[in-house]
Design a protein that fits this description.
Layout (H helix, E strand, L loop, with lengths): L4 H15 L1 H31 L2 H22 L1
């Protein structure tokens, strides 16, 4: 009980009439860009710990200490 070619063509015609070809093209482009960005961000997450240098880690720790010390000063 699957869809035949006739049913798929009818559904395609109805979708084109409802949205129009320009809207469908822009929706496809947006969806493709979103998927590409998602895949890139997933790949970047795995590479981040590998690219963090000791120097960068020290800089991040120093900035965190500065923020925590300034928070203590503002509490007084």
């Amino acid at each position: 009980m699957g869809f035949g070619i006739k049913e798929l063509v009818i559904i395609l015609v109805i979708v084109i009439l409802l949205f129009g070809t320009k809207k469908l093209k822009s929706m496809g482009t947006d969806l493709g860009g979103a998927l590409k960005g998602f895949k890139k961000s997933m790949g970047d997450e795995e590479e981040m710990p590998k690219t963090l240098d000791k120097k960068d880690a020290d800089t991040i720790e120093g900035e965190a200490e500065e923020v925590s010390s300034s928070d203590k000063k503002s509490d007084k």
